[in-house]
Structure of Transporter substrate-binding domain-containing protein:
Amino acid sequence: MKKIKIGLTAIILSILFILGACSNDENEVGNKEGLNDKTETTAWDRIKEKGKIMVGTSGTLYPTSYHDSKSNELTGFDVEVVREMAKRLGLEVEFVEMAFDGMLASINNGTIDIAANDISITKERKAKFGFSIPYKFSFATAIVRKDDLSGIKTVEDIKGKKAAGEATTVYMDIAREYGAEEVIYDNATNEAYLRDVAIGRTDLIINDYYLQLQALEFFPDLNITIHPDLKFDTPDEGIGIIMKKDEKELQENINKTIQEMLDDGTITKLSKKYFSGNDVTVKPDIQY
């Protein structure tokens, strides 16, 4: 009987040891998970902690992101949309000026949090980046020389013509589709683009209609015009703010604020200020 008691005692102690060890393991895992929960922060957490949002923009795209000729202050439609959005979110905003390709790289490496520069929301970009809801809609037209329309009567005449633009825009995609020869610029000013068309260094610029309309008003003495017969549908869902993919909390806060600004007319007011009375928040009824 004594041997049996000793044996049972040993078994009970072994079971208690195993249960204790399992409990310790579970506590340790739980503690580790708790630590991970505490140390894992989102982009929105980091932005709130800093009290500042870093925004990529070109500073050279009139009238969406440019420097005022009198004050040299950065302004424009997209710039002011972002300023008002940041104000409503209780954040300071710091703009970092760069070319469009640089904006995408800077979002991925964390140099900037978002970018705003008349950026088209496309299926291909949505596969790699996050976007806000759209706050601008437009269509594409072509700036050509006023005196001879750069020798372009129909879209078939675009083949072989020199099209100016940045390499990764939807507008250069359209030029490629019609067989144009690409002339690539790196964050050049509107004036540089337009003068090159006027003097024949390039033949056309395919871009957003509202931007081109403003450009013509700003440079009335140049030998340029919007081609009267060329209009292009763009493969996008409108214009929005771009950010790193899967930053859901940041995206949700931006979307909520942009929607409020659309609902209360703030973005329409900014649109009419920068686009000669046009409301770009409404989809245009255009036949292509």
Notes: The CA atoms of residues 186 and 257 lie 32 Å apart.
